Amino acid sequence: MALTTSPPGGGISYSRITMADHMDGKAKIRPVYTGICGTDRAEIAGHLPFAYNPTGQNYMVIGHEAVCQVIDIGENNSRIRPGDYVIPIVRRRGTCINCRIGRQDNCSDADNDITEAGIRGADGFNSEYFFDSPENLIKVNDSSMVMLSTLTEPAKNVMKAFEIFNKLSARSIFESEDSTYTSKNCLIIGTGSEAFLYAFMAREYGMTVYLTNRHRLLEEKMRIIEGIHCLFYNYLEENGPDKIDLLIDTSGDPAAVMKFVGKLNYNGIAILFGTNGAAPDSQLTGNDLNYIIEHNIAVSGSVDGSKKHYMDAIGYLEKWKYSSSGIINKLITGIYKPEDTEIFRAKPPEEIKSIIKW
Amino acid sequence: MALTTSPPGGGISYSRITMADHMDGKAKIRPVYTGICGTDRAEIAGHLPFAYNPTGQNYMVIGHEAVCQVIDIGENNSRIRPGDYVIPIVRRRGTCINCRIGRQDNCSDADNDITEAGIRGADGFNSEYFFDSPENLIKVNDSSMVMLSTLTEPAKNVMKAFEIFNKLSARSIFESEDSTYTSKNCLIIGTGSEAFLYAFMAREYGMTVYLTNRHRLLEEKMRIIEGIHCLFYNYLEENGPDKIDLLIDTSGDPAAVMKFVGKLNYNGIAILFGTNGAAPDSQLTGNDLNYIIEHNIAVSGSVDGSKKHYMDAIGYLEKWKYSSSGIINKLITGIYKPEDTEIFRAKPPEEIKSIIKW
Amino acid sequence: MALTTSPPGGGISYSRITMADHMDGKAKIRPVYTGICGTDRAEIAGHLPFAYNPTGQNYMVIGHEAVCQVIDIGENNSRIRPGDYVIPIVRRRGTCINCRIGRQDNCSDADNDITEAGIRGADGFNSEYFFDSPENLIKVNDSSMVMLSTLTEPAKNVMKAFEIFNKLSARSIFESEDSTYTSKNCLIIGTGSEAFLYAFMAREYGMTVYLTNRHRLLEEKMRIIEGIHCLFYNYLEENGPDKIDLLIDTSGDPAAVMKFVGKLNYNGIAILFGTNGAAPDSQLTGNDLNYIIEHNIAVSGSVDGSKKHYMDAIGYLEKWKYSSSGIINKLITGIYKPEDTEIFRAKPPEEIKSIIKW
Amino acid sequence: MALTTSPPGGGISYSRITMADHMDGKAKIRPVYTGICGTDRAEIAGHLPFAYNPTGQNYMVIGHEAVCQVIDIGENNSRIRPGDYVIPIVRRRGTCINCRIGRQDNCSDADNDITEAGIRGADGFNSEYFFDSPENLIKVNDSSMVMLSTLTEPAKNVMKAFEIFNKLSARSIFESEDSTYTSKNCLIIGTGSEAFLYAFMAREYGMTVYLTNRHRLLEEKMRIIEGIHCLFYNYLEENGPDKIDLLIDTSGDPAAVMKFVGKLNYNGIAILFGTNGAAPDSQLTGNDLNYIIEHNIAVSGSVDGSKKHYMDAIGYLEKWKYSSSGIINKLITGIYKPEDTEIFRAKPPEEIKSIIKW
Q1: Would you say the ipTM is above 0.90?
Q2: Which of residues 156-215 of B touch C (CB under 8 A)?
Q3: Which of A35, A44, A221, C156 is buried most deeply by CB count within 10 Å?
Q4: In the CATH scheme, what is the code of domain A2-140+330-357?
Q5: Which CATH superfamily includes the segment(s) C156-301?
Q6: Where in chain A is the domain with CATH 3.40.50.720?
Q7: In terms of CA atoms, which chain B residue is nearest residue A173?
Q8: What tens digit of pLDDT does each residue of C234-259 get?
Q9: How open is the CA angle A22-A27-A29, to the nearest 5 degrees?
Q10: Which residue of C99, C101, C167 is the best one to mutate when testing the B interface, meaning the one whose CB has the most B CBs within 10 A?
Q11: Which chain D residues are closer than 8 Å to A97 by Cβ?
């Protein structure tokens, strides 16, 4: 049984599919939990024009966020064994110069060179069991981390984004005069699961972290934000910090991005992460360009992450499990069954991350 | 005698001013050539709101591009001697963390921390003679370089911009698989003096270099572009390269910037340099953000340059003098006298760089 | 009461000293735990020629590893409050270009520009109470971390060393073709407290980690090494890994360093950290130089760390407390009273870190 | 006709060899000038144990420094044409992670993965004509540069070494507080051709440059050193600078290296480049390690260079041709014929670079 869609048209079905029955040097694995994200919903709604079925299939197993258990891995794999928990990676290496060094997140020809499980030309992870090459599996060492590890895939994006932040901030002295980031402001646009994971990471740097959105938050999200010592404001009603050093956008909304780029400090950095097909257009003015120039501002898109970032993500999730007194667990707001396909169609109010228990 | 204006109102006058008559540890220097740039003209036209007179003066000597000769430098300066040619720097150090390490081009508080000769709160260089601290003077070692050194100030901006390019390109493998940039395309928007200097530098990297504008070029500029093995096209009439790896904007025009950001390759980089108060607004769409994200594109403003960049600029100008068979000299399209104040009001057709011989 | 010595002569005394009785904008703090390290013992034994008393004192309070509690911090400090736990930093900023940006660990003139608490010209932390500027105090947010935080000072050295590793490894592609460090070998020479902290950190990178020494280890250390999934071998009796990617020396022994530099892989990195006044000389041959050159090997010393590294150290200690199932606590092998001055004279067999409870 | 040797035994012969007679997609090229270096002489003397003949040959054409002219390049090569001057590269790509991105100079498995023309398993360039893939050829654009381009191969080593310097100096603020290197001292051990090329490059950074050796220099070398504004001293007789910021060794002599590492400033950098099989052993002491650690010193080997560095080398040689008023030409101290095989056996007194005119 598997959850399938058929891009670019969309749809969702929980049904029996034809499964491979031999391993070909691969590992046989079964999902334990899978996460649901905006990309899945966009695909199902038929709003993801770049998604396409695997060659020779008229459907695609959906889902690229998963923690799985190894059923069988054949002989002679010293690193991973049956029973181990693993995270399968989304994007699979092509042959471009960046893929060659294991950085398919930086693929120089992503339109042609790579596939992405559950998105572009490769089956995803919502399937009773499936086969994958050991090189695509990241081991979860701590078995108490199984459910939380469902957040590894979204968290690996955060790791990649902060790698970019580290590179961009090397343009000048970004840190304060005590060598730390404690007097720096990070503003995160959006209050979804990625926004929260960005907030956790910006707190690791010691920054003062603001989340913002154009509406108020219900109680539960506010409690998480307070619990991790961050701040929230509704930017339609309130003024946030005067100056921002690091801006992270998870909204994909051009108007919000430009509003806050205009509050970046000298040598400030904006990381664009969120995409939103439905966002209305905004203005880009000569003054915007002038502001970016005079302030030595850098803006960078960040997509995906490499195996390195998956490993870092697991490490930080493990840390946050303890350091946040369990608040990190509250990011998982609902656990569903595979047959609850409605969860792919409608986002529950105040969802942070919905997951499926297989 | 000096050329003065009075920002933010503007105006231009060639008249006698009160000169300091003692050195206070400074060097006494006289301009040999000064360059005229868009900032000067904007100031005179009253279009530079952030410009302001030096404290206690109701005027400001204009001009921040100059090559000067040292008249007197007092005792015990081992590095610079009377008769030497020097370039005075524009921006003067404040106390912020970046100024402290000599990187006032990255000043963390440029609204308050620094002054800029001929622009913000400090006299410029169009004055019969003036006094400046040795630490603000860059020596020109090769006396055959005097006139060409007038381009040092604009060229130092190019050096800083490529420093940023080097940092941003470290996000991934940017070079081709032979370790060089020879298969990379650089597109430069604009065909003024800065655009040409950017073109020289991109050629140093071995890139294929395109300049573009929304009109055709007269013969003389076309000959320079061909002479340095670059290409030009009028983007309103012709299609340029399909994909760009490095985009440099000297136009300050949001529509042009967004048009070409949309042609950046994976891991592409855009350097914003040109400002233009009069540029019409353009659109920024959700698709634009999506494109930047999916392609791991980085966009960075770049302003000013440090002493390091002035020194590099002199070195490259010297190199280009020889390697371009003298074509670099053609960037200086007109030599005027200080009393020709009209040159500050109207840009001659096909001007690249107009200079004043003192 | 305080533990004092008088360098360069040495000695140790637990006795009453004259205490300042006003705060002068400083915080009044008391040590909760202090750590004892080789530097302290060398000082007391009169083997640290560069140590010297604070100006105007004929003694120096010893000790630079401490976790303290704030007794009083005056008004208006929003960041630190009475009752908070803090780590005081060792090295205090001078005026050189690196100190100016809060990187006194990279002081360009450490002979003259800085002081070091308990080592060079400034009192250390083994004193009933003392006064320190808030800028020298790093807050420990998690009160369950108090005792373990005594390791912050030694761990901050590890953070700085890995910062250097990150810079040096940017000379080439150091990671494996899956973007991770999982197929890389790290060898650590030595089995003292710093060696163990380096091992924890190298495991964070996912490397295979070997510790080595020229003797066997007793049971307790072996259990820790196994517990954190590292390996140990006695290099006088056994062969370790054929090739090393990252070598970290905590021994200060030239013969051991050169033995293992000769096993570094192409693009390998050696971090020198340990010093040892009594180590016998070794050889440096033309073949050694040739090996370093042909293999593009980089060797770097690493001393001290900045506030940034103290903060990172606290973060990682907190992580390791949980991820190692408490094994990190076993690094603290003995708790003493201030009057147990003998602990400064003789290192107990199998000591990893001895601390004093105040 | 070709100059051949047979490593590891050695010998030199100018004789007829069997030449390939078809191109196989390669370019047919003929050497115009070839350079002779210490590696050639060591090979001929039988002192290069790692050199070996190409597979299936009992000889190897010697020589890896050459400027050549293209005789035929087949069809459809847009970049290089018959008549063009080109530099063939020495080291040919393997399949390791660094070779894959065109950085065979950083080959992760150089014992097995790469070949080197005229050194390891591949014919060199002292052959009437030969065939090479276009990807191994670097074009010389300026035909007045032909003879001087013989220095491209040695100069590319300098470019790679300064790339490493740039990476290592990012550990701290290395520049002076005016952002430049003008107050930094560079000391170069040795006075051969590589030493001179390093001196030219260190002058590009604006450093004060010292060359040193353990004997006096004859007139001609002294004139070159003065001409490029460097300083020389015999370190057996005179004291050089108190403190060094950048040390470059071209001698391969451990005693000289350690003598001057001990004079490195805080955050100082040593680049090891020269190898010398006959150098006597020296001491490495605990104090040496301590000095390296306390001063945050980094030492790195540097071997070979990539295509990027060959291109940079040509650019700088072109620059130096003009900026040094022709002094760069004096580095070529003798021009020989292929039949003058004696020049491979004995180094003329005061040789800097001997070349062969084909």
Answers
A1: yes
A2: 170
A3: C156
A4: 3.90.180.10
A5: NAD(P)-binding Rossmann-like Domain (3.40.50.720)
A6: 156-301
A7: B98
A8: 999 999 999 999 999 999 999 999 99
A9: 100
A10: C101
A11: 100-101
